[in-house]
Write a structure and sequence with these properties.
Shape of chain B: globular
Largest sheet of chain A: 2 strands, antiparallel
Radius of gyration of chain A: 31 Å
Strand order of the largest sheet of chain B: 6-7-8-3-9-10
Order of helices and strands of chain A: HHEEHHHHHEEHHH
Number of strands of chain B: 20
Oligomer: heterodimer
Strand content of chain A: under 5%
Number of helices of chain B: 22
Structural class of chain B: alpha/beta
Distance between the termini of chain A: 48 Å
Distance between the termini of chain B: 46 Å
Chain lengths: 349, 596
């Protein structure tokens, strides 16, 4: 995987997604949502490319957003700002219900976006590693389960092809037969799996499974960059958690819309949060959301620079060597030779 | 120093009544390469399992096994786990975890090594076995050969002194198998690990063995260095030769005072030595090898004149004949193309293939060339996106399910275990014809009583006496025959076989070959794909070479193998400088005998 953040320690990956998803789900302040949205979308684009992100958002999550936004005011009628009166049911469609529906839809939209990143970054082995530390035997269990799923799927395919050729696959026959054949397939799979499991057990025993003092090996190491990233994340989290507690993200949609930092319909939110703290809180969250993208960009730039430098340095070094040799009175070179293959000439002479 | 000493070991499974191992005495020296061979069911695996306490089966045991001087039962679990490595038969089932690196570390985790040690050992093993390229992969993405190599590496990461391998290559294709065995040899040579191996691909291991043990019915029949084994077996007149490498088989059948050849190149020299007093051109070739169509020159001339006259008439007839021939084709594939994904590579490309009625046609070719896919097209599991497939002159798409799979086409899958449903072999056979009840149903349309039909098939496939056992308790070859019996109960006219001889020993192969020949004589058309050149040479009528999705050459079996340099049998490679047409060990032996 080329993404920089997914090469960080799994603990950081998990912490990051837990915090981002948690705050996106439970803080319903539009500024926070907007920041989370932009951060999440940028990261998704970095991970999956423009095409895939746009495709998923337009085909799947955007319609979902619309549905939520439109259905909420049809069923909820709280609020103080009536918009339309529906005669058949005798209810008002209110501005508050409509806005809240929109916010809920957005939350869903953003959370799905973040989850699509989560899936790319938190691969199964990272998950196994993290939760294996909590309960060591669980790590092996998870790992084995993850091994068995594709294996059973592959075996099922083999079995189905075999049964198809004697006309006994689920795709053959009428309803009752179909069910019967399906049960047969399952029975074959289970028998086969159990039989094979004996050999797996032998292989485990043969390699000393069951001895006392089993350890859990992992290929992950908590390196210096992970320490830096981790502390940066903790500091940022601390800042915006403090801001949230002070009320920088206060949001209320029922019965009237009250948002911290905004004056809506002539009312302010009942919070006492200084503008400075609110701004710091937003900035910290924004930085947090963009952390993976920033890390990726930093890595890309430093890589580019080191590549360029590598070429230059080697060139400089060798030019210096040539010059030194020349100065020490190696072989005085004719002008045209110096331009052409001077270097070679020196080595051979 | 002896790493293993077995003294008077006998073993019997509970309730079996007979000894699976009887009075075995054996010593294995440290650092040597040992091969244990014998027919299926002779007790090889049982013996190997006794060498590691956790894997030893339950049963009655007498005698004693010593590991480095101490009784094995007194050697602790931890020491045994670490020092005695064991690789089993099936590559898939031995893998425990989902990632390659985790699998490599599994044994070391069990031993309780710390991360630093594991990191080093895993890295070491991965580079020694060339695993580093797929170190981070999921195990489900690996090929069979890679999986078995991973199993070997994850045992070797514990640094065992003794490596036991129980038929490790029986599920692999020939190239992966010889790679694997090469690695085992390398381990023995480079690291000095003691190796004990059972294997039926003996030509790849016997020449390199320090010592060979031949078992027969639970006893140790013969032991010694490989060259002596040949002579001892010959002196004993044992039937064990069938399992030996081809040069040894030929040696056994011919009177010769020279040392036993082990490899193909030794075999060539041996034959040259035997034949050197024969002047060139005076070689007698036994009858069945001569080309039946070869005629004297006089007759040929006559025929030529005759042909000229008839040429005009014939061209008219040819068209008619061609039509008739087409009618007589069992399988006809016409420019079929197939790929798995829309933008993927064509797995089957421009495949044209014709199999005549009542013919035994074999397709050979490397791994991943699309043979199995082609077979799945012919069995209608998949359908080509271009081209046509005709079965008995009728488009395969126009068959109804029942017409096609009940009476026309029988397909024997590669893994027979994917077919077993019931608890006993007998019930399993009945299950495919709709149970025991004697009523006509869509599953069973023949007039014969079901019991008689089953009886007939059972005697055809030599399954008598096995019918009350659980299908999984049968040996590999017996399982294959049971699956074949199930397919045959559907009375197919065309039989498709996918690698039917995989993992079988020589004796089972002979049995299967006999059954197929019998079927063929009753007019069943057989199409088989196989890696097993020896089997195909012995039994098939025509052979096609499959390469890059189509059949590049198709000839009668003898002509096919006689014409190839690489893709031919060991017997042919050994004797081709004198008898280019002799393809099987029996034929080579026959030729040699005729000239001595």
């Amino acid at each position: 995987m080329r993404d920089a953040f997914s090469r960080c320690h799994p603990l950081l990956n998990f912490y990051y997604f837990a915090v981002v998803l948690g705050f996106t789900m439970f803080v319903q302040h539009p500024v926070f949502l907007a920041l989370s949205f932009v951060g999440g979308t940028c990261y998704a684009v970095c991970l999956k490319g423009w095409k895939n992100t746009l495709k998923m958002n337009m085909l799947f999550t955007f319609p979902l957003l619309l549905i939520t936004a439109l259905t909420n005011p049809l069923f909820n009628h709280y609020g103080v700002t009536p918009l339309v009166y529906i005669e058949s049911s005798g209810n008002w469609v209110t501005l508050e219900a409509f806005v809240y529906g929109l916010v809920l839809g957005c939350v869903m939209f953003i959370v799905i976006g973040w989850f699509s990143c989560y899936n790319k970054v938190m691969t199964s082995d990272k998950f196994v590693y993290l939760f294996g530390r909590v309960i060591p035997s669980l790590s092996l269990l998870l790992s084995m389960a993850l091994r068995f799923v594709p294996m059973f799927a592959a075996q099922m395919k083999v079995i189905r092809n075999g049964q198809k050729c004697v006309g006994m696959d689920v795709s053959n026959g009428k309803y009752l037969k179909k069910a019967l054949y399906g049960l047969n397939l399952l029975s074959i799979l289970v028998t086969w799996a159990l039989e094979n499991a004996i050999e797996t057990a032998d292989s485990m025993k043969g390699r000393g499974y069951g001895l006392r003092g089993r350890t859990a090996f992992s290929i992950y190491r908590f390196d210096k960059r992970d320490w830096c990233m981790g502390s940066a994340m903790l500091v940022l989290t601390a800042v915006f958690v403090h801001g949230c507690r002070a009320g920088a993200v206060f949001a209320q949609y029922d019965p009237r819309i009250l948002l911290a930092g905004f004056t809506i319909q002539g009312r302010n939110a009942p919070v006492s949060c200084s503008p400075g703290l609110a701004f710091a809180c937003y900035a910290a969250f924004a930085l947090f959301c963009f952390l993976p993208v920033i890390l990726g960009a930093v890595e890309a730039i430093s890589m580019e620079r080191s590549r360029a430098r590598a070429g230059m340095e080697a060139g400089v070094t060798y030019r210096q060597i040539y010059q030194e040799i020349e100065r020490e009175g190696g072989v005085p070179l004719a002008d045209e030779e110096r331009e052409g293959k001077g270097g070679i000439r020196i080595w051979t002479s | 120093m002896d790493i293993i000493t077995i003294k008077d070991l006998s073993f019997s499974y509970p309730d079996s009544g007979k000894e699976t191992l009887s009075h075995v005495d054996m010593t294995i020296q440290e650092g040597t390469f040992n091969v244990l061979c014998g027919k299926s069911g002779c007790g090889k695996s049982t013996l190997l399992r006794q060498l590691k306490s956790v894997l030893a089966p339950h049963g009655e045991k007498s005698g004693e096994i010593y590991y480095r001087g101490a009784p094995l039962s007194a050697v602790g679990q931890r020491v045994q786990s670490q020092e005695i490595g064991y690789v089993l038969q099936n590559p898939e089932n031995q893998i425990v975890t989902d990632k390659v690196w985790h699998e490599l570390a599994f044994g070391l985790e069990s031993l309780g090594c710390d991360s630093e040690v594991i990191r080093l050992r895993v890295a070491e093993m991965a580079s020694y076995f060339g695993i580093h390229q797929w170190f981070y992969r999921n195990v489900s993405e690996l090929s069979g050969g890679q999986k078995q190599l991973l199993n070997l590496a994850s045992v070797m990461s514990m640094h065992p002194r003794l490596l036991i391998l129980d038929e490790p290559t029986s599920q692999l294709d020939p190239i992966a198998a010889s790679d694997f065995l090469e690695t085992v040899k390398k381990i023995n040579r480079d690291i000095g690990t003691t190796v004990v191996l059972t294997e039926h691909r003996l030509q790849d291991v016997i020449p390199w063995a320090d010592k060979v043990f031949v078992m027969d019915q639970g006893r140790l029949a013969v032991e010694g260095p490989p060259r002596e084994i040949g002579e001892k077996l010959k002196a004993a007149g044992s039937g064990m030769f069938l399992a030996m490498p081809v040069p040894m088989q030929v040696y056994a059948a011919v009177d010769s005072q020279e040392a036993c050849p082990l490899t193909v190149s030794e075999g060539r020299q041996w034959i040259s030595g035997l034949m050197k007093h024969m002047p060139a051109g005076s070689l007698k070739v036994p009858r069945p090898l001569q080309d039946p169509e070869e005629e004297s020159t006089g007759a040929k001339k006559e025929k030529k004149r005759f042909q000229k006259v008839r040429k005009a008439a014939e061209s008219v007839k040819a068209a008619v004949k061609k039509k008739e021939e087409k009618k007589n084709l069992a399988i006809q594939v016409d420019e079929a193309w197939f790929r798995y994904e829309k933008e993927g590579r064509d797995v089957v490309r421009d495949l044209s293939l014709e199999v005549k009625r009542g013919e035994f046609y074999a397709l050979v070719g490397g791994n991943g060339t699309g043979k199995s896919t082609a077979l799945s097209l012919i069995s209608r599991v998949r359908s080509p996106h271009r081209g046509k497939i005709l079965l008995e002159g009728k488009d395969i798409r126009k068959y109804s399910e029942r017409e096609l799979y009940r009476g026309c086409l029988g397909v024997l899958p590669q893994n027979p275990q994917s077919m077993f449903i019931k608890k006993t072999a007998r019930e399993d056979l009945y299950s495919i014809i709709g149970g025991r009840k004697e009523k006509k149903s869509e599953e069973y349309t023949a007039d014969m009583e079901k019991a008689r039909a089953v009886e007939g098939i059972v005697s055809l496939t030599n399954l008598e006496g096995l019918l009350d056992r659980h299908p999984y308790d049968l040996s590999g070859g017996e399982q294959q025959r049971l699956a074949l019996a199930k397919v045959l109960l559907l009375r197919p006219r065309i039989l498709l076989l996918d690698e039917a001889t995989k993992g079988m020993d020589a004796e089972y192969k002979e049995e299967l070959g006999g059954i197929l020949k019998k079927l063929q004589s009753h007019g069943v058309t057989i199409l088989m794909i196989s890696h097993d050149v020896e089997f195909v040479a012995e039994y098939a009528d025509r052979v096609g070479l499959f390469f890059e999705g189509n059949v590049v050459a198709c000839r009668p079996a003898r002509a096919f193998f006689a014409g190839n340099n690489f893709y031919t049998t060991a017997a042919n490679r050994m004797a081709r400088h004198y008898f280019p047409d002799a393809v099987t060990a029996k034929e080579v032996a026959g030729c040699l005998q005729a000239n001595l």
